[in-house]
Specification:
The chain is an alpha+beta fold and about 100 residues long. The protein has one domain. Helices cover about 40% and strands about 25% of the residues. It has a three-stranded antiparallel beta sheet, with helices on one face. A hairpin with a 2-residue loop joins strand 2 and strand 3.
Length: about 100
């Protein structure tokens, strides 16, 4: 099996943010010393109040973006469902009071 295929992970949903870290490596002869810093795509997420990061390979960025989008859509759907449940509960309580 191809090594790249072996390392691919199936990601349904991810919580966090996709960011790009920009930094200089410190090597005096590196191109970043006098120009553009190195850029690394990273998934940033919070775990029990601590910000954690996972460095990504360039080919993983699209997969991570898609999983983050699915998480946000599901979260929005749950929020809509929860608000509808609260509205239904309020109506039930109000009709019980009017009897």
């Amino acid at each position: 099996m191809d090594q790249a295929k072996k390392r691919q992970v199936e990601l349904r949903v991810l919580r966090g943010s996709l960011i790009v870290l920009k930094r200089r490596c410190g090597k005096p002869n590196c191109k970043c010393a006098g120009g553009e810093p190195h850029q690394t795509p990273v998934l940033s997420y919070s775990d029990r109040g601590v910000t954690r990061m996972v460095c990504l390979r360039p080919e993983q960025v699209a997969v991570v973006k898609a999983a983050l989008g699915r998480y946000r859509r599901e979260l929005a759907r749950l929020e809509t469902e929860a608000l509808a449940g609260i509205a239904a509960l309020r109506r039930a309580v109000a009709s019980d009071k009017s009897r």
